[in-house]
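user: can you give me the structure for this one chain? tokens are fine.
assistant: on it. calling the predictor now.
[tool input]
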Amino acid sequence: MQRTDTPRVAVVFDLDGTLVDSEPNYYEAGRRLLERYGVTDFGWERHTDFIGIGTRETLAALKEEYGLDAPLDELLAGKNRHYLELARAATEVFPEMRAFVERLHAEGVPMAVASGSSRAAIEAVLGGTGLDAYLTTLVSAEEVERGKPAPDVFLEAARRLGVEPGHCVVLEDAPPGAAAARAAGMRCVAVPYVPGTVDDPAFGGAELLLRGGQAEFTAAAAYDFVMAGRRTT
């Protein structure tokens, strides 16, 4: 039962690279897809350039870069198919993130996932990791007009939770997501996935930047940060 004195605050999670370490699966899905179309030089470093950007936007850029003739929707369906196979086989949840989700759930704090992934991919990951027991409000970039760094997915998450954007805290691992959180008027806890992005200007707008990434993140400290900035109604 939710406590009657629960602060008026909500937490919105990015999924990939924030809650779960799904980037290796996304990289492999993209590599397999591009290989099918004759591209054999797509490496991990190039993949990291697209972390935090929606799958459709990523594939549109790669389609142009490699001169692929296949329709964008065909590429999208192919990558999602490869990714779902990999995600269902194994996806790792960052342990302190799981602890944080469980604590927020126990305290009755509203939560949502807002991701650039497809809804099918979000549901597969949450279902396979057991996080679907706690996270039921989901927003995919497919459901809004613009992906990150536009604020659309975060604003839609706030709307579905029935919480004002200014009462939301976003957890993000990538600069486009941090920029989207700022544009939405939400506080941001930045947990960089790629070490080389730590000094990206987009992270400069985060209220809490954990330069050490997941190695520095703790559920207790994150909970204290969320509660310290709460707003009551």
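assistant: here you go. Residues 39 and 66 are 8 Å apart (CA to CA). Confidence is low (pLDDT under 50) at residues 1-7.
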